[in-house]
Amino acid sequence: MNQLSAKIMEPVMPKDLPEKNFTDCFDPDEPYLEHALFKDTAIDLGDRRGVEFTEVRFQNVTFSEATVPQLYLRDVIFESCDFANVQFDEVTMKRVRFVNCRLIGTSMTEGVFEDVFFRECNLQMAALGFSKQKNVRYENCRLNEADFYTCKLNKVDFSECELSGINFTGTALKAIDISSCRFERISVTLEDLKGAVVSEEQALDFVVMLGLIIKK
């Protein structure tokens, strides 16, 4: 397992959050919720801009295929939640954890991630292009065909992840460690790859992918 390049701050929240019914406490006209636990339910956020969750925990929650631009999350934990095909473009996340979540096709383009941890999540075909990520860790995640086009990554870790088909075009990978990850192909330029931390086997794979010829 890779050594963390930076310590990720944990979400800050009370130990005993009150369990609530989302429909009863969510006001579409003032879409802000704090200090709550939601579990074993389905949530429909509809098409709504600027929803905010602070010190909230979601367990086994399914989010419908909503369009929620400029979502704001601070001190939030998602456990075994389903976000498939949800549109969260321009999301802001601070001290957020995703554990065993399904984010297939989820769009978080132009998002700002700070102190965010994805563990054992499925992010296949997720769209994260143009995002800014600082102190972020992806651990045992499936990122096949995910889009990281033109992202700014600062102290971002990929540990034991599946990366086949991921798009890193336009994203500088200097000091980014992908040595423990698995992939057959990656979209990346030689310039973007400079300074990346890779295994010896991966280095040979990149030589082939970049069309270089090894002369013996």
UniProtKB/TrEMBL annotation:
Q: Does the keyword Secreted apply?
A: no
Per the record's keyword annotation, is RNA-binding included, yes or no?
no
One function term, GO molecular function aspect: lyase activity
SUPFAM superfamilies cross-referenced by the UniProt entry: Pentapeptide repeat-like (SSF141571)
Q: Which residues cross the membrane?
A: none
- The lineage's top-level taxon is Bacteria
Against Pfam families, the record matches this protein to: Pentapeptide, Pentapeptide_4
Keywords on record: Lyase
Q: Under what name is this protein listed?
A: Pectin lyase fold
Q: What is the native source organism of this protein?
A: Trichococcus flocculiformis
